[in-house]
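Before relying on records like the one below, remember that each one covers exactly one chain. Contacts with other chains, cofactors or solvent are not represented anywhere in the record.
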Amino acid sequence: MYKIITILFLLAVLFFMVRRAAREWSQPKLDPTTPGKDVMIQDPVCKVYVAAGTAIVQELKGKNYYFCSQDCARHFKPEDVT
């Protein structure tokens, strides 16, 4: 009886380990420089935090800047950012 319980327990552990490995393998690798869509990023103009998925993105001089609105994006000056 104990042998059957031990075998079932080990099979369950093996199942969860294989499932986790399969999920990690199948998920796309994200670029570490690009934030996820749920990450909160601070607007450099008005200092409001906005989700990266809903932010307005502008690339200036090879760097991405995230804004809460088109108005902030228009008023942005890259030399203001340190």
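Residues 2-26 form the longest helix (25 residues).
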